[in-house]
Amino acid sequence: MIRKWMLGSVVCTSLIFGCASQADQPQVDIGDRHGNLRDAQEHIVQAWRLVGEAQRDNDSRLGGHAARAKELLSQANDELRLAADTANEHER
After folding, report:
1. Fewest beta carbons within 10 Å, which of 10, 28, 54, 71?
2. Which pTM does this prediction carry?
């Protein structure tokens, strides 16, 4: 009974984290006005996708490090967006 409960908990946790990581998927949302920042965003999106492919290829047995990398990529993407917003505020 305990074994079934633990298996169910693991499956539910995996689904929750899988959905959470999908929700944080970075997107390119910086325009051409800030070409370098936009290029950086494009690379982040590509890296995020490739990490996801590595997770699938390794049946998500990467010790949580790939998931953490995706979180950090999402954070970096957010920071680039903020940098572009700040640049827009300070332009004349």
Report:
1. 10
2. 0.73
